[in-house]
Design a protein that fits this description.
CATH topology: TIM Barrel
CATH architecture: Alpha-Beta Barrel
Number of domains: 1
Radius of gyration: 20 Å
Structural class: alpha/beta
Number of helices: 10
């Protein structure tokens, strides 16, 4: 974006102001294989010499907008007011990320997208260069936009991807959040994306995602603490890489600053080989953005600390699509899984 365009973009909204199974390929990176009840990949090796190039931890900042937002009927004035308020906060978050040259990813579910189709009239678009807010976020403020779906209320991932297309911001193949839990096979069905999935609301539409992020459990009570990128073999061997697999998983790790610092230190101590990609993501929730003083809190506790780590070469801001592309191009698509087992948390 040129300086003139960026100034115009910023002015336009001024008013609306996170492996190594460690079995990188079966323990070939010098770390220990998985053992029950212990962190994987924790056997120290020779510290990395100061002259050796040490990669950064690749970190994604993201925001999920859930399927109950905005709440209420789209025909209600209070629902529109919720949308307008959240819209303004999302724009502010994008400006904040832009100011720190930090990539930010927005992953909305179906209801916010229907609201955008309903509410983005000329009056609202006047503050965003006559573009709907999602187009403006992506094209003018460098926000990555992916599909997120709880696959409830009759809308699945293909439907959400189609709604993104309808708003002019489709195209990525990121599956923005999914359930991983072998104890709940009725929910853990990520492998259905190995082939194109037909829409429920839009049955004529097919879409196939091939990048998983999140690896969550119901209500996030037993989420795996895992960093790295790999291709899961199957539902029962999720943390085993299948080089022939057509879906990649990005580990989320701990979703806090100390966790990112811990990962960066592994490179420098030699615990993790520099040929392995370590990853983490941090969720900036809508409630964080809409709280009084929330944006300042996000800036001071998330964006600034990560930016300082970026300046020292320990972190790289990215999005899920670019991360997987970097994994393939710079790391040779070598699977690396650094996971803390549940018993060792």
């Amino acid at each position: 974006m040129s300086g003139r365009v960026e100034r115009r973009a910023l002015a336009g909204i001024a008013l609306v102001t996170v492996l190594v199974i460690a079995a990188c390929g079966g323990g070939t990176d010098g770390t220990a294989p998985t053992s029950p009840g212990t962190p994987t990949g924790t056997v120290p090796t020779t510290p990395v010499p100061a002259t050796t190039s040490v990669p950064p931890v690749h970190v994604v900042l993201f925001t999920h907008i859930e399927d109950n937002t905005p709440s209420g009927l789209l025909s209600a004035a209070t629902t529109r007011a919720q949308y307008v308020n959240l819209r303004a906060r999302l724009l502010e978050m994008a400006v904040l990320a832009r100011r720190f040259d930090a990539r930010w990813t927005l992953q909305p579910d179906w209801k916010f997208l229907l609201a955008a189709l309903e509410y983005e009239d000329a009056g609202l678009r006047a503050s965003t260069g006559n573009l709907n807010v999602l187009r403006f976020l992506r094209d003018s403020l460098a926000t990555a936009i992916d599909a997120h779906s709880h696959e409830g209320s009759g809308y699945n991932y293909t439907d959400v991807a189609h709604l993104l297309d309808s708003l002019g911001v489709g195209g990525t193949t990121v599956i923005g959040g999914h359930i991983w839990d072998p104890a709940l096979p009725q929910f853990s069905q990520w492998d259905r994306f190995r082939v194109p999935l037909r829409g429920q609301q839009f049955p004529s539409v097919l879409w196939r995602g091939d990048i998983l992020m999140g690896s969550g459990t119901p209500n996030h009570v037993n989420d795996p603490i895992v960093s790295g990128v790999w291709r899961p073999k199957d539902r029962n061997s999720y943390f085993e890489d299948d080089p022939a697999g057509n879906i990649a998983v990005v580990g989320a790790w701990r979703s806090d600053i100390p966790g990112i610092i811990e990962l960066a230190a592994r490179y420098r101590s030699g615990q993790t080989a520099t040929t392995c990609m370590l990853t983490g993501s941090m969720h900036i929730t809508p409630s964080m953005l809409t709280a009084a003083g929330g944006l300042a809190e996000v800036e001071n506790t998330v964006v600034k600390p990560l930016s300082a780590l970026r300046e020292s070469g320990q972190v790289k801001f990215t999005d899920f699509t670019a991360l997987v592309a970097t994994w393939k191009a710079d790391f040779g698509a070598r699977a690396c899984i650094y996971r803390v087992s549940p018993a060792a948390r």
